[in-house]
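Hi L.,

You mentioned the student needs an example of a multi-chain input paired with its predicted structure. This one should do, with 494 residues in total across all chains.
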Amino acid sequence: MPKYEQIAQDIRKSIEDGALAPGDRLPTVVELCDLYGVSKITVRKAVEQLAEQGFVSSRRGSGTYVKASPEAQGSENSAHGGDALYMGRKDRSIGFMREHQNDGTVTSDIYEFEVVEPPAEIAQRLDMEPGGFAYHDVRVRRLDGVPIVQEDTYMPLDLASGLKRQHLETSIYDFLRNEKGLKLSSFHRIMRAVAASKVEAERLDIKPNDPLFEIEQIGFLDDGVPFEYSVSRNVGSRTEMHDVNLT
Amino acid sequence: MPKYEQIAQDIRKSIEDGALAPGDRLPTVVELCDLYGVSKITVRKAVEQLAEQGFVSSRRGSGTYVKASPEAQGSENSAHGGDALYMGRKDRSIGFMREHQNDGTVTSDIYEFEVVEPPAEIAQRLDMEPGGFAYHDVRVRRLDGVPIVQEDTYMPLDLASGLKRQHLETSIYDFLRNEKGLKLSSFHRIMRAVAASKVEAERLDIKPNDPLFEIEQIGFLDDGVPFEYSVSRNVGSRTEMHDVNLT
DNA sequence: AAGTGGTCTAGACCACTTC
DNA sequence: AAGTGGTCTAGACCACTTC
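Structure written out for the whole complex:
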């Protein structure tokens, strides 16, 4: 782990255990350099990471201050009703399985699993050659038996060759990473609120027209190649998405 | 504008006008240093910005590659139905007014405007002293006459003192920035899909139980002090949120 | 072995806030 | 005037990919 991450982690701990309270000013950049025995650029990178994660805010000429913690927000939300899906911190948004591996037991209902020529508009988003084939699957993911989300996914055949039903039941991303050696790098997402169709309602154990949190997503490898197009529809009452936004 | 932003902008232009196509490799970091006459750290910062914005992906030992452009995604979405609200690129998510100032005419219906002792749970999120007062307002924002979102907002009285009805009709953020000299720095958000109540449906010109895209948000100043708590409910069929997520 | 991106040093200079 | 964060230089060393 690089130095700047260690420093960020150390300061983050001080905030989380209360040694640094909301409104407090952090030591100055120069003081932190002395304290950790590193150069300014390393401290700056640590502070930038803390800012991205929502822990601090820097004010030129004045100092760096502790914000009300995102964790406090997090805990409060569950009271709001959304008790199932936590997404959003950048490092956590890497698949349903990984998000929920500590939450309970994940299972899947598989409704479709086939190899097809994808619709032109999807092929284009996946940067596929005309006539190329792709895996297509539709799953409902359950947490401790409760249906959370329906995922409709396309993956180019040549990137994901060897994909089997058993991977759909656990984690496609684990298969891509561990068995195919791919490095998943980033996701472009569009989120919307939509109404459940009759079929979706049945699969997700809700009522038709109940609100769904839709995520249309393209996943990219570290060489910029798209490996996945998916539309997931999350049960509104069991889903919330967290986000920190810097201006 | 700092050098690294100029360089990022320059490379971004090359991508947008097609000089660099998806899948292409950028010049190496060292080549870019020579090309722009800057040091390595400056080029790295430019490339990091491009990665955050979803334009490129870097692969250690190999190179930096152009991804399928987010703009291509953007244009495709409007075909999908969501033709009104574009959010998400970090630098654009700073208020309804600013997001739509080029889209059409923004107007407001004001349903509530008062100074109150906020509910305990909201006062806590705003880090307010017990017994403190806050502005509270409920507005519906329209774009060219079409209702898009209902916003329910609390702001501490001492931070926003002088707020008037006229500011609710244009932009509260402009008032805070220009007249109060505040620097809005970041927002913590939680997003959900919910169903419209009867009252909301009436105000937004939709049907009860139609899906709404809810954003619960706390806004922070550059010294880490929260200045705003708001819950906005956006008409699902007129809203989409864009996002780039790095792992 | 050669080439690539990622981290880091030890400074310098500047913009801005605070007094 | 003094103190703060933000940017930048000219290198160095390393992890990883490619051949």
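You could point out the following to them. The CA atoms of residues 185 and 224 of chain B lie 8 Å apart. The first strand of chain B starts at residue 56 and ends at 59.

Best wishes,
N.
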